Amino acid sequence: MSEQNAFLFEVAPHHDVRVPAAASGLSRWRAALYLLLAVLLSAGVILAPFLVTVVISFSRPGAWSGVLSDGQAWQAVGNSLIWWVLVVIVCAVGLGLAWLVRNAGLALGLVMRVILVLPAVVSPLTTGAIFRLLFDTSRERGMAAALLGRDLAFLGPGWIWLVLGLAFVWQYAGVAFLVFHEALARMPSSLLRMARAFGVGRRRRLWSVVLPALAGPAALAYLFALVAAARVFDLVLMGVPGSTQALVEGGGLYWWRHNDDLGDAGAAALAVLMSLLVAGLASLALLGLRGRVNWADPPAQPSPDGSDGRARTAQAGRARAGSGRRLWPLGGAVAVLWLLPFAALLLTSLREPVAAARTGWWNGEPWTLGSYAEALSDSAFTGALGTTALRAVSVVCVVLLAAVPAAYVLAHEHLLPRRAWRPVLLVSVALAALPPQAFAVPLQRWLSPVGTALALTIVHAALVIPLAVLVLHNAFVRVPAPMLARDRWELFHVVREARPAVVLAGVLAFVLVWNDAVVGLLLNWPSGDHLPLILLEQARHFMSAASPLAAQAVIATAVPVLVVAVTARRLHRGLTRGVRR
Asked: Label partner for 375 (CA 20 to 30 A): which of 85, 107, 402, 525?
């Protein structure tokens, strides 16, 4: 056996450090009861309507052939694949930034985490508005055009894709950075030392040590970005002028615009095609969801001279501090780039509406709070703030009530038949990323008698539950076995130890509901009730309403930012480790 192969043999056990499966006091029948609410909501709101959509797609001969021969439909599907490429870029940018600042020290690491993650709580509508302001093709209004000294309208679809790509990366790369930054910081240093001792080269160490150890975090980062990409809708509606949206619209937006033209069967066929594509891409996350990182570094080993290794630890700390000081210019440049869109939004909101429509946000004219006063005096806007907040809190309660016991059961593989466990996890991944267009039409027909307010709450909860289950499952399997009571209160002890992940699931549900405009549009929701749809109304007169729209967006963004700020410490631990210790 060669030295490098011997090294791989030695480190293989370190890449599977899951909590050993142990028997619990939970019976199969009780486990089924724990799964009941999550299964009912996911099956009733997502899976059953999706199956109906599949049946409808075959109800008319030629429906599939018509969609498969439709050039515009294939262009939309191709655009959806571009969004998947952007998902990979998001993960790559997050990993790259985490790798560059892996030895940056506590201060710079904290600054980077706070600044990079902030865009993730911003509504895609707001992100679209910000980047439309930044990259307006007119040099009087757009910063990029002003720097280049000429109008950029001639650049066409390539320019639009650049703007959308930058907006998507800005919004979601911070989440990937946070996951990878923590994973790199807590990856067992013994693995790399062992690799160097066996003479493994730097490139081989990257492929055989670093990347396998990052499999679990990479799967979560990929899944988060894929869910956002699969449901991308409002970013295009707000960020792209209406006359050019057809050039970059994905399958979901194309379906929304043309489902009447396609007919019931044709629209259903397109929805199924998009769902199969997304499900296939989401299944790649399964390759890493079983990967685990040994987050705790092993205790310091005695040095050859008999000391306890503290001197070497202190020396390593001083080396990291020196490296951190050298990285401050890089961190400062990244921080400026990530804060620039926020500055553009805030300064636009403080400008007089007529001036904001004529010139760029950087113009030095006097500032005014008139747009904020107008927004707060609008009863429709303030009423939507309260209604959306109440709906978001209700969804959080339903999601946790359903997802916590379901994730607990999935974390104990012995409670499910061996052949059923992996299909259940696969279905959870697929449902988490399934585009809403796949079940919108049957769902709208079924829920219309229920009442619109209750229906929207149920739909939002059902859409978030699969993702919440995956987040919680990833944490529950890390709860150390000695912490479990192995009695009827075992679930309580698991939740107590995995409290950061539970907080993360709740905040995730709140932010997704607060910022969502897609579900309301697909269910023909009245625009005066849900906050993002009020913002979307302003897009019809984007330039003339830039200042009032920016003021409403700032107010709408302040709420999820406040929620994240209050729970920041537990969110960070919930996203990176999942458990308290």
From this structure: 525
Amino acid symbol at 99: W
| Domain tally, the chain | 1
Return the DSSP state at 391: H
Q: Is residue 317 part of a domain?
A: no
Instruction: Please determine, for residue 314, whether its predicted confidence score (pLDDT) is greater than 60.
Output: no
Which residue type sits at 449?
A: P
What pTM does this model have?
A: 0.83
CATH number for the domain harbouring residue 406: 1.10.3720.10
Distances in whole angstroms, Cα of residue 274 to Cα of each of 157, 259, 266: 22, 14, 12
Assess if residue 20 is contained within a domain.
no
The two structure tokens encoding residue 73: 């439909």
What are the pLDDT digits (tens) for 419-475?
Answer: 666 677 677 777 777 888 888 888 878 877 666 677 888 889 998 998 898 888 878
> How does DSSP classify residue 366?
P
Burial class (CB in 10 A: 0-12, 13-18, 19+), 471: buried
Q: Render pLDDT for 550-578 as a digit per residue (tens, 0 to 9).
A: 999 999 999 999 998 888 878 777 776 66
DSSP per-residue codes, 145-206: HHHHTS--GGGTHHHHHHHHHHHHHHHHHHHHHHHHHHHHHHS-HHHHHHHHHTT--HHHHI
pLDDT for the residue 576: 66
